[in-house]
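Thread: Modeling a multi-component assembly for a lab meeting

Hi all, long-time lurker, first post. My supervisor asked me to bring a structural picture of a complex we are working on to next week's group meeting, and I have zero experience with this. I have the sequence lines for every component (665 residues in total). Could someone generate the structure of the whole assembly? Inputs are pasted exactly as I received them:
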Amino acid sequence: MSMATTDRPAPGAAPFVPQAYRVDEVTRVLADTVTLTLAPLEGPRPDFRPGQFNMLWAFGVGEVAISISDGEAAGSFVHTVRAVGAVSRALAELEVGARLGLRGPFGRGWPLAEARGSDVVVIAGGLGLAPLRPAIQALLANRQDYGRLVILVGARSPEALLYRDDLAAWAQRPDVEVQVTVDHAGADWPGRVGVVPGLVEPAAFDADDCVALVCGPEVMMRFTVAALRRAGVPAERIQVSMERNMKCAIGWCGHCQFGPDFVCKDGPVMRYDTIADRFAIPEV
Amino acid sequence: MEPEAMPRPAALIDRQGLQALIDALADEGYRVLGPMRRDDAIVYDDLAGIDELPAGWTERQEAGRYRLERRDDAALFGYAVGPHSWKRFLHPPVETLWTAHRDEHGLTFRAPEPAEERFAFLGVRACELHAIAIQDRVFLDGPYVDAGYAARRREAFIVAVNCGEAGGTCFCVSMQTGPRAEAGFDLALTELLDAERHDFLVEVGSAAGAALLERLPHRPAGEADREAAATVVARTASRMGRRLETDGLKALLQDNPEHPRWDDVAERCLTCGNCTMACPTCFCTTVEDHSDLSGTSAERVRQWDSCFTLDFSYLHAGSVRQTPRGRYRQWMTHKLASWIDQFGTSGCVGCGRCITWCPVGIDITEEAAAIRATAPDWRDD
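Re: Modeling a multi-component assembly
Sure thing. I ran the full set together rather than chain by chain. Output:
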């Protein structure tokens, strides 16, 4: 029957239809991981907020949600892609000049404005550093707005450490504390061996007045959140970036449900106290 | 729409009037769809005339069981709901989202032109009106609007039928979704059938409905006709095959994710996904990509999907919901609890399809009752 259809305009008339992008640059960052610089074939690159993601489509193969991993690339989207499935493998094999589809950006990013005046603890495990890099860049660009800045990074091995040049550059700064650890390493690794949550307790930040930004494998985030809570960080000051299967990124396909939340539109960045009831329950 | 307190304008039509209704809708360019008997079930498909309606048939429904049976009268709508629901037309099982073409110049995407099709649904039950309203919230209430769904929905003409027969797995009374059609229709019929008459009380729910009624041979309905129609609905309401206690149900399920009953039901659940396919509100989809052999054309197709598959929650490290326990819990908790967080309404309309069409006869009302009976932190309340 005729009905009062919603009168608010649809953001993007066809939110399912990608825009065409061109690969401008491919950098192999790890053995199985590349960073792609993507420029729109037509029109300007849409604005985005650190922590948001795009849906990247490899011709005839499929689409996958990938976080935006650089906030300083004017006119382009930068994505770091690990070849783990059919689509990400196809994306990781793209060469300069190749065309692909892109929809986005989508989702809730890191709430950096809320962190103003507070210490910020950035905690990344593995590829989890990718969606945090634009946040770190934004924090550094407005360094005076924040208190202490602590960056805690973990990886499986020294070879699996992402953005080593960035880590070194950030560590050079007197106003940033960078701590890196790896799960396993050979005798030639001069750094720390151990898991990321172990970096929380010794780090110098004000637990009563900080914001923690956490991204990594779910098990790493669980132990990290526990370490932050033990250190005295309130649950509502912890932000985690969740990952779920996604087919649409616009709240229709149902795949990314995490309890009552749709990770695509209620996340991926979620305030820990709003998900604490289900964060540790398997298979939610 | 008339305010609820006001009695709607009502009229009477007979079987010829019902045929005239179908003809008038077809004449106005609608694709008329309605119930018919096929493959030993009552399904929804293109309807040319009242001869195709399942006259004199009803069904016996139980958990995991559906059998058509002969009625001892010639009722045209003397059954509840079958395996189909109207979502197959508004939210089609397979839909091409776009096609892509690439050549040396670039890559272009094109969304297909929206189909011009206008649906007229004949025989929409009260629970199904609610199911349509629930899917409206998913696809129309944003932040994004599904343009194809919106167009189909906007154009659809809905002829509801108040239920004269409660199915063995029906519980619309519990869900407050029936058996009487209260809103969301253009016209609503109540079949009035006894030794002396075979008429339909027609209530008007919209201006389009009123205009269509004017095209049909009809006569005014009297107070006795209205009372007869009310009696039909009241009798149906008193014969629900199932009951679901909804008081506190949301918290009950969300507070008990580790209840042992989830293990019990997982012992029986085949994770076949039949419940999600038959459900009139389940909206989940997946997408599939196709490309031609030359690699110049590709298309993306959206298809109904089910949270009971392993693929549904697959991430690079494996599926989030590895076990039937996790998947059944996701489905039922979503349907009866987190749906309320997401869309402000339960995802269940009490149609009973998930019970009837479950090959092992899992009964959502029985599962909810079992959790309620034994949830430790619930009994203490």
